[in-house]
Amino acid sequence: MHSNPIQDISDISLDEVIGQTLAFGWNDIEHGDSTSFNEHARILTEELQVGTIILMGRNLQSFDQSSAVISDLQSHSNIPLFVAVDQEGGAVNRFRPANSPFHEFPGNMALGAITVGPEGHSPSEWARLQGAQQADELRSVGVTWNFAPVADVNNNPSNPIIGVRSYGDEPELVADFAVAAATGLKNGGVLACAKHFPGHGDTDVDSHLNLPRIAGDRTRLEEIELVPFRALIEHGIGAIMTTHIVFPALDPDRPATLSPQILTSLLRMDLGYNGIVITDCLEMDAIRNTVGTAQAAVEALKVGADVVLVCHTLEVQREVVRQIKEALAFGYLTEDRIREAAGRVLVAKEKMSGQQPEPSAPDDDNLEMEIARHSITIVRNGGLLPISNPAIRDAIIVSDHHSAKGFAEKLGKRFRSAIVVPLVKANKLEPTGDSVILLAVAPHEAFADHIVDQKLQLKVAKDVLNKFADQTILIPLREPYVLKELTEAKTVICGYGYREYTLQALANAICGDFEPTGRLPVTVT
């Protein structure tokens, strides 16, 4: 990982100790783009001496480029770096297929939908296999810390930020799959990080934008949110990420990231956790617009966090370091606390450097496809699935989603024609008896390049279903919760995403190439 040895906490300076508690990202500044070792990256590694570098999509172009820039980062750091990334699978992947050899995988809710495991194993074995392959891919480029798995129980259908990133709304199922995923990563030589403690699943507010609150007494939290985290701690999870959410039953005033009741009393004492605690990004608006990023970094370290995550802005990162040093100088933050935090990071690095990853199966595309196929779920079947009737020769895909064209191409091998009809033209549909309508409903995506009009989509979907329900297949392209509003649908099939392999698996299932065995891992009624 690095030519310099990992040093003992007693042998490094206070500035280096502070650096081990920092996880910073780099961006474009005057001297170079963010896909290279630019001036911002140099300042982080040489001047601020950060212990962890977080890679964002903006930093990654290709395998060779990524490998080179990670090597540059390590060579400019006196103490070996943790190189971290969000590579969850599904909706959140910093490395994409273009960064070969990386796979995106269908995502956590797709895994949670699986009911049939590999021969001789439970369904969660797919999550372990995925974690192992992700570890292989990440290590090959120099990444040592993955901010996964997501351990949130997604029991709020209106959740705008978790959704299919969760394995489901059943605490035990989430625990089972999260432990399996973390085991695959750990055995493959990558530090796993469970998130977002103590749970981000029951909110209808995005903490990137505002400060959410989750009601419910301690008993409810024990029965739902804490179940996966307890299981992960029992199985030796190496890192846990906090969430910027207020839990009044635990602390009525402070979000989890800044709460001694949550990070120390609950996590350290009650749950017995001894690994690294890292904050979610402190530049998220839930923190930035309330406490402020730099002050929050000081507070988080004071109440029990070991690493503070600041992903974007150099000026903010400099201010974080300045305020940490000031808090130490005035005794508000003790040197013992900061050395304890840095010590956990160095211990984890030492373990990682001496670990021999387990050998894994040859890298190929089969695992991605197998997970996708096993996740496909027929929710309702009004007699259309599979489409084996040779009289049905045309497929009409009603959708404004960017994946519709690729989906049509996959279906075109089975049908005489497969065309995409945009929402604004759906009112002119006049399907013949030899046609099937595929109503591909796009998810709400606040940060997408092309945002689908959700109100128009819902109206069009209801109109199509009211007129042609008997020859329409409803396909939620990601979250299945839209089924609550489209009860008119007689035939529904879910794949929990719209990546390449999920679309192929959907097309194959619709055409009868295999019999889907998935089940909904969330309640949609």
How far is it from the N-terminal to the C-terminal residue, by CA? Answer: 50 Å
Low-confidence stretches: none
How many individual β-strands?
A: 16
Number of helices: 17
The amount of helix comes to 25-40%
Multimeric status of the protein = single chain
General shape: elongated
Structural class: alpha/beta
What does the largest sheet look like?
A: 8 strands, parallel
Radius of gyration: 24 Å
Short description:
By secondary structure, the protein is α/β, with parallel strands linked by helices.
Structure description:
The structure is a single chain. This protein is of the alpha/beta class. The protein has helices spanning 14-20, 39-47, 63-75, 108-112, 125-141, 171-187, 218-223, 226-234, 260-270, 285-288, 293-303, 314-329, 335-354, 366-375, 404-411, 454-468, 500-510, and strands spanning 22-24, 52-55, 82-85, 87-89, 92-93, 145-146, 191-197, 239-242, 276-278, 308-310, 377-380, 394-398, 417-421, 435-441, 472-476, 492-494. Helix 5 (125-141) runs parallel beside helix 6 (171-187), helix 6 packs parallel to helix 8 and helix 11 packs across helix 12. The longest helix is centred in the middle third of the chain and has 20 residues, at 335-354. It is elongated and about 80 Å long.
